[in-house]
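User: Structure tokens for this complex, please. No commentary.
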Amino acid sequence: MDWSWEVVLEVLPSMWLGLIVTVQAALVGALLAYVLGLLLALLKMSKNWIVAKTSYWISECVRRTPLLVQLYFLFYVLPDLGIFLSPFAAGVIGLGIHFSTYTSEVYRAGIENVPKGQWEASRALNYNAYQTMRFVILPQAIPPMIPPLANYLITMFKETPLLSAITVVELFGAANIFSNTTYKFLEPMTLVGLFFLLTSVPAAYAAMRLEQRFKPKNTGAS
Amino acid sequence: METVFKYFQDSWSWSLEYYPILIQGTITTIELTIASALLALIISFVVGLSRFSRLRLVRVIAVIYLEFFRGTSAIVQMFFMFYVLPLLGITFPPLVAGILACGLNLGSYGSEVVRSALLSVGRGQHEAALALNYSSYQRFRYVLIPQAIPVMIPTFGNLLIELLKLTAVASLITISDLTFMAQIIRSQTALTLEPFFVILVMYFIISSVLVWFTKVAERKFAKGRDTISGEGV
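Assistant:
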């Protein structure tokens, strides 16, 4: 089996269109994961025992089951219950929900890692809940959250090929459709792999730089 | 809610007909998970330790492996193994392709866990081993690895869950695991809620067992060690 540049030229246009969908799915999915994750984190840290436990177990149910099956669920089951989603919407919602369980842990850890003395100091200064969060806790909690959140964006980017299983024509889906109609697998699959490699390696490197930049300065918290 | 309930009631009869293939799918999923977990564990240690090699070439190969398998998507690796390698004359049965793809993919993440756990062992321990004139084999075998293992276990536990979830993707390369079976039931009965709900529960049970297993391992390896925090002990 020889590498053929003609096949490459043939497949590139549809892969380009797929790439746009991939980037859109990853970005929208990540945005959803960041927002839902924050919500979930707040629920998990709720003082109400029942709310905290319930949201913890819901989050565990999502985290312990495969994204692919969740996507099937959204795509095949919801229409039977009267909810119709486009493949792209189902995919993005699936990605967002699945990864919100991961990002919620990032938020939770970020907030809990702020030393207890900081909360007490805010109370001593007679700060209200808003002031405590806005001026004391969040400025210390957010910087260490940024690198792991960025890492999850990269992870989600690499998970987008799963959306092809629910007929979203993203990068991998486009290549796969081409392969299935022409029986040429070598070039499209190699290109997809190469593309992910060329994007995620520099991205991982950038995330590492972020990590070094936002390293917490107080050595007390671990 | 009532409609959902009725929906279930009307159509539970499918389970009598299809439960054997669900059990079969569960067994395949478990087999795939265990086999690729063992492969990933071996790779994690081999590659993770290679990063400490004195030979530059070994270190470079380890990094290339790591970046390659961590950088490309797992599903792409699986399709590559299943569709492209046969064109190059290398043919695997689907199950082997699945085990290799899952194992190689998770092995890359695992190798980083091994490496960072070894780095987290206090510097004094490295120096003490050198002071005792330990060979590098002895240094890793008797001093560093035993102290690094408790650090590795929680992260390995998380990776084990990731691995289980990855095996669902193997259904796309025709491995008849749980997810594959659910798709068969869906296409033969046009039922959707039931098969997918059942396999979600199955996956949840399997991963919960894995979580429990990790906790047990954590406790076992933590025995007799009061501190693992290594910083200049």
